[in-house]
């Protein structure tokens, strides 16, 4: 802080920067948390891709297999 006098002789004190705006602090904290959550989710996703086994496909029903064979023109066995 510095003390100055104007042309009339009145003394006044010039205040320096008071610090960061509280709104900016809240924005930085919330933004940091969002980035932290996103980074954590990505890390968990990559870990799961490497460690979990591949999903098993559902077995095709006999009815569907028969229908597909008929579409292709191959007769189903036993008919």
Automatic annotation (TrEMBL):
Coiled coil feature spans: none
InterPro entries in UniProt: S1FA_DNA-bd
One Gene Ontology term, aspect cellular component: nucleus
Keywords tagged on the record: DNA-binding, Membrane, Nucleus, Repressor, Transcription, Transcription regulation, Transmembrane, Transmembrane helix
Disordered: region residues: 53-79
UniProt KW Thylakoid keyword: no
Pfam family of the protein (one): S1FA
GO biological process: regulation of DNA-templated transcription
Subcellular location: Nucleus
Domain of life: Eukaryota
Gene Ontology terms for molecular function: DNA binding
Transmembrane domains' residue ranges: 24-48
Biased composition (Basic residues): 53-69
PANTHER family: DNA-BINDING PROTEIN S1FA1-RELATED (PTHR35298:SF11), DNA-BINDING PROTEIN S1FA2 (PTHR35298)
Role of this protein: DNA-binding protein that specifically recognizes a negative element (S1F) within the RPS1 promoter.
Family in the record: Belongs to the S1FA transcription factor family.
Name of the featured protein: DNA-binding protein S1FA2
Organism: Acorus calamus (Sweet flag)
Annotated gene: S1FA2
